[in-house]
Model the fold of this input.
Amino acid sequence: MACTSCSTSDGGSPKGCKNNGTCGTDSCNKLTVFDWLSNMSLPTGQAPFDCVEVRFKNGRKEFYRNTEKLTLSMGDIVATVASPGHDIGIVTLTGELVKIQMKKKGANPDSNEVPKIYRKASQKDIDIWSAAREREEPMKVRARELAISQKLEMKISDIEFQGDGSKATFYYTANDRIDFRLLIKDFAKEFSTRIEMKQVGFRQEAARLGGIGSCGRELCCSTWLTDFRSVNTSAARYQQLSLNPQKLAGQCGKLKCCLNYELDTYMDALKGFPDFETKLVTEKGDAICQKQDIFKGLMWFAYTNNFANWHILKIEKVQEIIAENKLKNKVSSLEDYAIEVIQETEKDFNNAMGQESLTRFDQPKKRKKPNKKPKSAGENKPAGDNKIVANNKKPVNNAPSVSNEKKPAITRKPIIITKNEAKK
Done:
């Protein structure tokens, strides 16, 4: 999803609006809300709701009252009240749905403390706003250098300029409380603007910066999730997930919010299950639960004296054994209640098209043929060598051997004949 300014050009390179996918159009906004009341007409005589929802950088949203009765729609750039000066934002929601959103966020729609909208932003306002946005990235790099030089244990994650460029808000994360009074003086001297420091949590930092999760999709906190509920390791235990902090933690370093999504379904399915630590008393010995399949309603038990063999039991059978044990009766064995596992025959799939080969489209490498060109008589002969070497063949003895003793091998020296002796 992207707007025309974020789409790729003819050459394949992205144009980019320098807003990282959070530009003015509604197609790629963060935390966009679908206005399902937009096609419904109001009753006769009722005035439309005069509050709108305005979004600022990285999903920050505020509610403002349209006192001037401007004709606003989603995507309009407006100038709003700020302290001091004014701020520039984008309208993301209008109409009766804003009243529902205000009640959801805990804001009073009838309160007189709701700030107001000045006007629609002019071209001059947009130019000043765009110039201030371009200063944010180099300022963030320099601000981190100044924080490191003062040896402060903090991380400056983002900078947000006000629409008129009169104030810059620095968002940072830290584990402990930090005294940054000297740092603010250095910032004001370096950047020549009004400085405001705001500490955010690690989850809020991940929501502002965005990213791709382990599922391959954009982070929930930066796209649609607005409330951060507490996540415990018990949610992973109920879902039988391995308690590996590297797999359970998100980009913020905390437990993933998606661990709570299916927790209620698992809790409902576990109501009919007995306790995982329940022991089954049999004549062969006690049995302990090793594994359970929540949605199939199966439990795996093994004897304490033989943990290698597991027996699969349904929940109904386990409840029967527990009922017998409560009456102080021992069951004969688990085999009487276990499910017989039928091993399925493996099906061999033969592909007639040869698609199982990954190199079927590769061209075979040409082998180099050995050079069978006959060599001339004088190629291997060194220059200046007038000697011919000849070896005497070993005579063949056809007489049968009398003894089995091994005779030592006879080595003979080669006889060297010169050319003059050969002529004689």
Q: What stands out?
A: Residues 204 and 424 are 108 Å apart (CA to CA). The radius of gyration is 41 Å. Confidence is low (pLDDT under 50) at residues 19-27, 383-404. The chain is about 20% helix and 20% strand.
